[in-house]
What does this fold into?
Amino acid sequence: MYLRGMARLESAVLGDELMATVTALRRLVRRRLRQVMPGPPLRGAQLELLGVIEQRPGIGIAPAAHVLHLAANSVSTLVDQLIDLGMLVRDVDPNDRRAARLWLTESATQRLAAGRQARRELMAGVVADLSVTEREALTQALPALRALITALDSTEGR
It folds into this structure.
């Protein structure tokens, strides 16, 4: 019982450290990219929604909300904001007149591509400055991080 309790405590500490580290990494990358990206600054949730729509053009609000693990009304608000910024077009689904379909504008497509390229260049430079041992540790951690994502995704809604 004691060892199991210690393992849970160690797992909790590791989980907390992991989340704090990933959050700080994402925040710093977003801050650095904001300095080089043209156009209005976009929040993380807005960028995530644009990414979902890029992967699934014509997706509706409810399915996008499901993919993002957000409430449909939250996604609807993001859609309205992105339409106002000229990043999205919303039309009516011809199969269900009550449903909307979402499409990226050319401006959004260009913005996402530029963002990916800027992120790639930023991270390539930073990773290149790490030691060989640190780069190897990051490479070895990727499968465990992917497994963590899969585990979290499979336990959603329980």
Notes: Strands lie at 88-93, 96-104. Residues 2-36 form the longest helix (35 residues). The first strand starts at residue 88 and ends at 93. The two ends are 25 Å apart (CA to CA).
